[in-house]
Amino acid sequence: MRIDLHTHSTASDGTDSPAELVHAAAAAGLDVVALTDHDTTRGHAEAAAALPEGLTLVTGAELSCRLDGVGLHMLAYLFDPEEPELLRERELVRDDRVPRARAMVGKLQELGVPVEWAEVARIAGDGSVGRPHIAEALVRLGVVESVSDAFTPAWIADGGRAYVEKHELDPFTAIRLVKAAGGVTVFAHPLAVKRGRTVSESVIAELAAHGLDGIEVDHMDHDEATRTRLRGLAGELGLLTTGSSDYHGSRKTCRLGDYTTDPEIYGEITRRATGAFPVPGTGGTRP
């Protein structure tokens, strides 16, 4: 089985619609794909309705968290999307995205960048507006060469010249809420230093003690030495290890299935989850 547990659609900051994403996943030879848009489950229904036969959908979300000034992302799988407390927190994060993005555009304008809010909003479309949409606007203006080049201290990385904070969950709270909603938590790309500051291994140990289920090890932003280090840490802490593409369509260079999760790990994730169940494809509608 080929299993990719971290992808994004136009419901947040990907470029494929949820329906297009599941068909692309099937074409890439995947057996299981997780849709984990940022702080939203809005794409799940469309993905499920379009799910090709032979492909299984894992519903999830990537929750925006912050601890001691360091941003981190928590992948949440197979939780009840209607659980009230977790739903309220997701809505708070989403509601803060527009004023935050507008403020970042204002900071860029103060730096002499002729970026306009209308263009950022157009790029985001119906998705939850975020930094990748601002980064794409900078690429189109020729300010940076690629989306990843915008995520530097010079521009919109954490603490960068045009960075603005938004409402984010405490990761310990995120774990508690996801657990209460019957879900499973995996710390996304925990040592992706190219993205900015990361938390220490002692913090990962604390998260594990508070119920964290796993860490994402095989990811494009982890080199081989980092993956080896994380596997060792996971073994010490009793954490599951996953691998995923973090696919965003044409917005990033990674492809569906570039990194995958071991079927036994996937099986353990589904065994632990009680809030929702994987959705088997039955030959859904094409996009």
Topology record:
Blueprint: E1 3-7, H1 18-27, E2 32-35, H2 44-49, E3 56-67, E4 70-77, H3 84-95, H4 97-110, H5 117-124, H6 131-141, H7 147-150, H8 171-180, E5 184-187, H9 201-209, E6 214-218, H10 224-237, E7 240-243, H11 263-272, E8 279-280
Parallel strand pairs: 1-2, 2-3, 5-6, 6-7
Antiparallel strand pairs: 3-4, 3-8, 4-5
Helix pairs in contact: 5-6
Short description:
With 287 residues, the protein is α/β, with parallel strands linked by helices. It has helices spanning 18-27, 44-49, 84-95, 97-110, 117-124, 131-141, 147-150, 171-180, 201-209, 224-237, 263-272, and strands spanning 3-7, 32-35, 56-67, 70-77, 184-187, 214-218, 240-243, 279-280. Strands 1, 2, 3, 4, 5, 6, 7 and 8 form an eight-stranded mixed sheet that branches.
Written account of the structure:
Helix 5 crosses helix 6 (131-141). The model has no long low-confidence stretch (mean pLDDT 95). 38% of the residues lie in helices and 15% in strands. By secondary structure, it is of the alpha/beta class.
